[in-house]
Design a protein that fits this description.
By secondary structure, the chain is an alpha/beta fold. It has helices spanning 2-12, 19-29, 31-58, 92-105, 141-151, 169-178, 189-192, and strands at residues 64-68, 84-89, 109-113, 126-132, 152-163, 196-202, 209-215. The protein is globular and about 45 Å long.
């Protein structure tokens, strides 16, 4: 999650090393204050770019839907009408703000505390699994992808909005030095996780933010 990636080091120490551990600390220990800080950090990005990215992410989603890493509920305004949405996060403070947003918007969803590495759902439970800026922040993205695949129905679809290493090598090398968290080759994980890339779409001119549509 982009906002948490900036806010977490302020409270959990350091800006470069073990960013996944720092984000876990941020999301599980900051409570409602952490949720408020996350929203504050994200606000300029959401105003400028986030709306368009999230509209693209949720377009055509329907049926039984799992949102992983719901955070403070940035995606809640885009939940499709009629969809049966279950949304999970590892931090109760984040979930509390997401629930508050859902109530304010009249969105009906089931918010649960859960770890994406060990989802508490039976096999093939969902038609869609949706996540925004999640794989960059978890401690074991391959395990998370394995769980996503497990709970996805055979005809289901995974939608992932991720910030990844840009195609431009010069920019990639710069990010390697100053912000390695934003320069991950996430697409290389999908074949190992036995997920097929149906589409890959760059949402900015540098290819830093991409929308992936995956299937089993």
């Amino acid at each position: 999650m982009i906002g948490a990636a900036y806010a977490a080091p302020l409270f959990c120490g350091g800006f470069r090393r073990n960013i996944e551990r720092k984000m876990l600390c941020f999301r599980t220990t900051m409570g409602s204050l952490g949720g408020w800080i996350y929203d504050l950090v994200m606000w300029p990005l959401e105003i400028r770019w986030g709306k368009g990215w999230r509209i693209a992410l949720w377009r055509g989603v329907h049926g039984r839907v799992l949102e992983i890493g719901v955070g403070t509920g940035a995606n809640v305004p885009y939940y499709p009408e009629g969809a049966q949405v279950t949304a999970v996060d590892i931090g109760e403070g984040m979930l509390s703000r997401a629930r508050h947003k859902a109530r304010g918007l009249g969105r009906d969803a089931d918010f649960r505390m859960a770890d994406v590495h060990s989802l508490p759902f039976p096999n093939e439970s969902f038609d869609f699994v949706v996540g925004s800026f999640v794989l960059c922040s978890v401690r074991d993205p391959l395990r998370a992808l394995a769980e996503i695949r497990r709970v996805l129905s055979p005809s289901g679809e995974v939608r992932l909005l991720e910030h990844v290493r840009p195609k431009n090598e010069r920019l990639g090398r710069v990010l390697d030095r100053i912000a390695p968290h934003f320069a991950k080759r996430t697409w290389e994980l999908f074949p190992t996780a036995r997920l097929q890339v149906e589409t890959e779409r760059a949402l900015d001119r540098h290819g830093l933010v991409r929308l992936y549509v995956l299937r089993r």
